[in-house]
Each structure stands twice: as C-alpha cells, then as structure tokens.
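Reminder: ligand-aware prediction takes two inputs, not one.
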Amino acid sequence: MSLLTVSGLTKRYSRGGKTLTAADDVSFHVEPGETLALAGPSGSGKSTIARLVLRLIEPDGGRIEFEGGDFLALGGSALRARRARLQMVFQDPLAAFNPRATVARVLDDPLRIHGIASRAERPRRIAALLERVGLAADLAPRAIHEISGGQRQRVAIARAIATKPSLIVLDEAVSALDVSVRGQILDLLLDLQREQRIAYLFISHDLGVVRAIAHRVILLDAGRIAESGDARAVIDTPRSAIGKALVAAAPRLNRNRP
Ligand SMILES: Nc1ncnc2c1ncn2[C@@H]1O[C@H](COP(=O)(O)OP(=O)(O)OP(=O)(O)O)[C@@H](O)[C@H]1O
Ligand SMILES: [Mg+2]
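Here is what comes back for the chain with magnesium ion:
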C-alpha cells in the first residue's frame, strides 16, 4: 500500500468573477522512503497541491489517503495525531516561525504538543535534534531571526523530524539558499531519508535539484499533470511541451550535458 495516494484532487479559486482551477484532477502516489518531486512553472499549482496534502486548504474534489486512511475525513484529535506523521518545511522559516522565538522553543513545541517527551526529557531531545541536523547545542537559546538562513532551514528540518514523520512536504525548501548551503541541506535530507525511511514530496522549480534528489517527478502545467516518471529519465528526455521548455530554460542542466 502506498504511503500517500492522491486521486482526482481539484482546487478552484474564483478571481474577479472567473474561476481558476489551480489543481485539476491531480492523481499520484508516494511510497515509503521515496522522494516524489513536483516541478513546473510559477503558478502551475505546486504549492496548491502541497497545501491540499497538508490540509492547510480543503479541496473542491478528490481523495487523499495517508497511511492507509481517508485523510480528508479526519478531524479533531485524530487529525492532530495523524499530522505528527506528515510534516512540512517551507522556503522561508522566518515566515513559518515566530522570528523572536528561540531555537529551543521552536523544537520544544512539537515535542510538547504531540506528547513525545516529558518536560524533563525535552532539553536532551532538543540537543539530540540539533546534533542530528548538524547544529551546535549552544544555538538552542538563540532567536530564530539571529541565525543564518542555512541554520534556520536546519532548525526547520529538526522540527519536522521531531515527531518521527513518514512524509515531509518541502515547498521550495532549498530555493532561497546559496549553492553550497543548498548542497549541504540536500545531503542532510538524503541522510535522514536513508536513516529514517522518510518520504519527501519535494517541490522545486529547479530541475537540477530535482534530478539530484528525487526518484520520480511530476511536471505540472496550469494545474494539470503534463508528464511524470523516473526523475532522470524525464529531465534528460522530456516528452511534454512544458518539460521541454523547462529543461531548455535550465542553464545548469544544459552545461552538464555532453
Ligand atoms: N488563495 C488564492 N486565491 C486565488 N488564487 C490563488 C490562491 N492561491 C493560489 N492561487 C492561484 O493558483 C495558481 C497556482 O498557484 P500556486 O501557488 O499553487 O503555484 P506554484 O506552482 O506554487 O507557483 P510558484 O512556483 O510561483 O510558487 C496561480 O494561478 C495562483 O495565482
Ligand atoms: Mg509555490
């Protein structure tokens, strides 16, 4: 059984009397320990799909099955409990967290809210999480706005893994980082996936990054799936018009080609 199965997912927005279909009959699955990338031009519906899967917004149609259950049917405490297994990392942790909160506080919250560790145990857990993502323990009392973008993204990853998720949705999680920091964060994600068999729904407009990290890729065009398959096969030999256009517009990919 797949970890996540999305079928016929549809989300419409009305804008100035017109209807825009941001996700149009989208179906896919994610297997345990797998990275599925969603790529496509700006406005193609990547973040809409991420937000639907996380239930930050509700769909107009379709089904989401997560860990064998109807995710859209969950509410209240059942939803909260299941959410521990489905975490997220966004592009800008400064927007996701209270910038004045300390690193310790950001990591303490999920441990407390999901009842993962007692008050006495939590400092040790926080130190272990920081160590796991390659951060020094003395970062714990620092405020989120005082640390670097790369350190913040490591804190966001530490927070995401705190609840032992089976799936993490990453929406442009490395896009704002410079190239060397981006490489380090991608390596960390790969290590965590190997260790903990976490699946990633990895959203990026950067086909070079997708090719490096994803097993499979879905290319979106105006809310619809234009093409999908093995990440390297799709990126090296795109068949859809949007795939060809995206590859042609990706300079780093072209340089790597013979
Ligand atoms: N809350 C909203 N209200 C109205 N329209 C929206 C809303 N959110 C997204 N849209 C529209 O839905 C479409 C898909 O947006 P979405 O943010 O999912 O694209 P995206 O692929 O993530 O783009 P980007 O690469 O720029 O992040 C766009 O046309 C966008 O303008
Ligand atoms: Mg987006």
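The radius of gyration is 19 Å. The chain has two domains: 4-85+165-255, 98-163. We will return to this case in the review session.
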